[in-house]
Amino acid sequence: PTKHTSIIKVEKKKKKTGKNKAQGNMQRRSHLNRLTEEQLQRQLDWCIEQLEQGMMSHKATSKQKEEASRALKTLRSSKAPLVKKRQVMRAMAGDYRKKMEEEKSKQLKLIQNGAATQKSVFHRRAGVKATTSESDTNSNNDLTAAPEKNFVFTPSKEEFFFNFL
């Protein structure tokens, strides 16, 4: 344990932490790159959707439809550079980022208003009681007899699972 060996150990520790910092920075950069790629894809999808809606409207002239189809071709192209795509999006949709935010806020307001005004409605399902009188049994049989005649259960060979997104 001389001074020289302890200095070497400290230097080795510094080197390790430097590697960890560089690795952390790389992870952050890759995460940011993924976020920007996702954002770009959302912007592209939004602009493509707007152009398609514009082409489907009856108000669009043949010249506008032709311009929109060229823009769609550019936006969907995997070979077109990012700068060109952004230029086309700006030319066709104007300030598309602002418009996307406005549309998002409108949809959020509609959802909130719809949830506030909508009331839950519960429907009670008819069931067979365990202990019933004969008159109740006859009325239940009348209700349940018709669906049983038409319904044929065929078991599926596929396994059941929930497909949540």
UniProtKB/TrEMBL annotation:
The record's section on InterPro entries has:
DUF4615
Listed Pfam families: DUF4615 (PF15393)
Coiled-coil spans in chain = none
UniProt region (Disordered), positions on chain? 1-34, 58-80, 122-144
Bias class Polar residues marks the residues at 130-143
PANTHER family the record matches? UPF0488 PROTEIN C8ORF33
Q: Which family is annotated?
A: Belongs to the UPF0488 family.
> What is the name attached to this protein's record?
Zgc:112185
Question: What is the originating organism of this protein?
Answer: Neogobius melanostomus (round goby)
